[in-house]
Design a protein that fits this description.
The protein is mainly α and 529 residues long. The protein is built from 23 helices and two strands. Helix 15 runs parallel beside helix 19.
Length: 529
């Protein structure tokens, strides 16, 4: 009984923590918007244009991203091409840099004085609708690719073999077998992409020109004009697609596809298929690596294109303008988010997955709520709650908002892992006189350490590159290095911004590399045990 009482107290404490850090700021923001004339804001020409622009650009970008991701996932899972692991890593590199960097990369390549526009001698304008669409596709494509590749990897090949024996055409197989299998995952991917793009302000901030979207309008109102009331109205509107995606994702869980694979696909020799796959992936890789090349070019040349002599001046200038301080801030924030996030996620997921009760269901619901809150909206909500408190302008607040912002995905990762473990571990331990804490320390942690490392890297990488929530809460020298991107862009210091993008990418690649090595070593030890 004592143990049960302690567990309930821990559950209540975790629930209160999540309520204070997620629910209360959101409610405070929604209440605050009644301080302005909501009808006037929603009926204004500025809002109507921004809403139309957001929906149009997001829809087009979602479709393009989905098509490209489907093609890439098919190439990786259904063709006989080599080096698929390396290919998958390269295709997901855009996930390791801020969305604002994608917009900046397109400016460097296709702007009025861009690398490619100068090389080809074309007079183009990357700003506006197509610029935002292109940047949004680059930003969202890796997420769609990972989601679809993971689903296609576990598809059973038996129906296709039967269809081949019956002489059913490839097109009929695609329509009758592939599409029904992908239907539910595709719905989740579409809503995830739409929400991700429509709530992003990094790409539109760099490439908007005269094409303003809702997130940029919200940022301009709340940060530029300190009109928080109007900003909260726009924030509430941005909650709608995120909330819809959240509800549909919860209702759309496809448990039928979670079984074991009966038979994996055998990659028979097919030159036409593999040639197409190599060509398709090569085009994608070039599109992904070109912006990274542009960061390198601008970082180490004096003044592109007038003076392309090698220099380290841009690196020196970045560190002279407190780049080193902001980099240390980012590292501290990311490390703090990873450590605290792992502890909170582990405890919460353990309570909800291994100690089921009515309170556990409530705790689970609160834990996944942050999936429905865009970072930009969360940041504004935190401003309204924590302004004037001892937390304002501190690294602790930036750590807290990042934990909340990125909490749901690691939590679900850990929750699913706990559900896969033998449900009788603790009961057997108690029968043998072994306490719950010893079972957790000696059995559960060793069995879940791979997931723990993965969720730690998720927290770290996302905290290094996020710009949405933290943009409202950073002050003075207490801000992450990712916010220097918009600062340098505003000051026309594009070379320094390119170096910052390169710096963030390098740090995240190193972290991912360390995680990969650790997981390989753990897998090797398990095989040798």
């Amino acid at each position: 009984m004592k143990s049960s009482g302690k567990i309930n107290i821990i559950k209540i404490c975790i629930a209160l923590f999540l309520a204070v850090s997620v629910v209360i700021p959101l409610i405070r923001m929604l209440i605050y918007m009644f301080d302005t004339d909501i009808g006037k804001v929603l009926s204004s020409v500025q809002f109507t244009n921004a809403l139309t622009n957001s929906i149009t650009a997001t829809t087009v970008a979602t479709v393009l991203s989905l098509v490209l991701a489907l093609g890439a996932a098919w190439c990786v899972t259904r063709s006989g091409i080599k080096y698929k692991a390396i290919l998958s890593i390269v295709l997901t590199l855009p996930m390791l840099i801020p969305s604002i960097s994608h917009g900046m990369g397109l400016i460097i390549l296709f702007g009025n004085n861009g690398v490619i526009t100068n090389f080809l001698g074309i007079n183009g304008n990357i700003y506006g609708f197509w610029g935002i669409v292109s940047g949004s596709v680059m930003y969202s494509f890796p997420v769609a690719f990972l989601m679809l590749a993971d689903v296609m990897k576990y598809e059973d090949s038996s129906p296709y073999e039967a269809a081949n024996v019956l002489g059913i055409s490839k097109w009929r197989q695609f329509v009758s077998i592939t599409l029904p299998y992908l239907r539910k995952p595709l719905i989740s991917v579409i809503f995830a992409l739409f929400t991700m793009i429509v709530t992003d302000y990094g790409v539109p901030l760099m490439l908007r020109g005269n094409y303003t979207t809702l997130p940029v309008m919200m940022y301009d109102e709340a940060v530029g004009q300190l009109n928080f009331a109007k900003g909260t109205v726009i924030g509430a509107v941005l909650l709608i697609p995120a909330l819809a995606a959240f509800i549909i994702d919860v209702l759309n869980k496809d448990r039928g596809n979670s079984g074991y694979v009966i038979k994996q696909f055998e990659m028979k020799k097919n030159r036409v298929r593999d040639f197409f796959s190599y060509s398709f992936c090569a085009v994608l890789i070039v599109c992904i690596l070109l912006p990274i090349f542009s960061y390198v070019l601008l970082t180490f040349t004096s003044k592109y294109p007038s003076n392309i002599s090698f220099t380290l001046n841009h690196i020196k200038s970045t560190f002279t303008m407190d780049g080193g301080t902001f980099l240390i801030n980012s590292f501290i924030i990311a490390l703090g988010v990873s450590i605290v996030g792992i502890v909170v996620v582990f405890i919460t997921a353990y309570l909800t997955a291994r100690l089921k009760s009515k309170m556990s269901k409530l705790l689970h619901l609160i834990s996944i709520t942050s999936l429905a809150i865009p970072g930009l909206v969360l940041g504004l909500a935190y401003v309204l709650v924590f302004n004037g408190t001892f937390m304002q302008g501190t690294i602790a607040l930036l750590i807290l908002v990042n934990i909340v912002h990125f909490f749901a995905s690691p939590y679900l990762m850990m929750y699913n892992t706990f559900n896969k473990l033998n449900e009788n571990l603790e009961i057997v331990g108690l029968t043998l006189g072994v306490g719950r804490m010893h079972v957790i320390k000696d059995v559960i942690v060793p069995q879940t350490k791979s997931t723990i490392i993965e969720l730690g890297s998720y927290f770290f990488v996302n905290s290094m590159m996020t710009i949405s929530a933290v943009s409202f809460l950073s002050a003075g020298k207490i801000k992450p290095i990712s916010l220097m991107l918009s600062q340098f862009e505003a000051q026309m210091l594009i070379e320094c911004a390119a170096f910052v993008s390169l710096l963030i990418l390098t740090v995240n690649v190193v972290i991912k590399g360390i995680v990969y090595i650790l997981k390989r070593r753990m897998a090797k030890k398990e095989r040798n045990a």
